[in-house]
Amino acid sequence: MRIAGLRSFSLVDYPGRPSAVVFTSGCNFRCPWCHNWKIAYGEESLDDNMENVKMALREKIRKRVNAICVTGGEPTIHSDLPKFVEFLKSLGYLVKVDTNGSNPNMVKDMLEIANYFAVDIKSRPEKYPLLTGIDINMWEKVEKTVEILREYKVSYELRMTYVPGLSDEKDVDFLSEFSENGENVFLTFAKSTPNFQIDRDIPYIQHLKVDKIKVR
Ligand code: SF4
Hints:
- The protein has one domain (about 5-160): TIM Barrel (Alpha-Beta Barrel).
- It has about 220 residues and is of the alpha/beta class.
- The protein has helices at about 35-40, 50-60, 80-90, 105-110, 130, 140-150, 170-180; strands at about 5-15, 15-25, 65-70, 95-100, 115-120, 155-160, 185-190, 215.
- Strands 1-2-3-4-5-6-7-8 form an 8-stranded mixed sheet, with helices on one face.
- About 25% of the residues lie in helices and about 25% in strands.
- The structure holds iron/sulfur cluster.
- Iron/sulfur cluster binds near residues 31, 34, 36, 40 and 100.
C-alpha cells in the first residue's frame, strides 16, 4: 500500500471524535473537481513511508487520538488495505474507511474489521462517467457496496459532493430517493481547484430536498 500522507489530528474526519487521517495514494476515478487530486493521481510526494507511518501510529498518535480515518485517493485499490485496517485495530483504534464504493468485495472483507464506512454517491446512475471522469459506469459497484453495508448493518454514511456545472437537482433528488430512512446522508459543495474552476455565475441549486439529507 502506498501512503501519501498522515495528518496527526483532525476534528472533521471521524464522526464525533478527534482522529488522525491516513491518506493512501492513487485512485481509480478521475473526478474532474477532485480536491485531493495530487493524492488521487499519485503525485503527492510526502516523505511518509509505511514504516514511518506505522511507527507514528504505534507511538505519537496513539497518545492523542483513538480513531483513524483511512482516506485517499481511494483506499480500496490497495489489496493490503484489510491487513492495514487490522493493524490499526490491533493498536486499539476505531477505524473509518472512506471509499468511492467501487470495490464492494473489499468492503465486504472489512465488515468485521472497520467501525465505520463513508461511501461517495457521485451522481444519479446515468451521470456516473461525467462525475467520475472515467468511461466505465461504476454505479452498479457502488450500489452493491451500499447494499452490503445495509445488509450487514455496519455504521456508515452516504455523501454526495454537489459540483456546480456538473451536478444538478436531479442528482440530489436521486440521493434523497436512494437513501433509506435513518441513514446518515450528507451533501457537501465542491470548491474550485487548479484543475476545475467553479463558475460563480452558475446557481448552486434552486430547490433542495433536505428531508433525509444533511448539508455540511
Ligand atoms: S473518487 Fe475521490 S479521490 Fe478519487 S478522483 Fe474522485 S474525488 Fe478524487
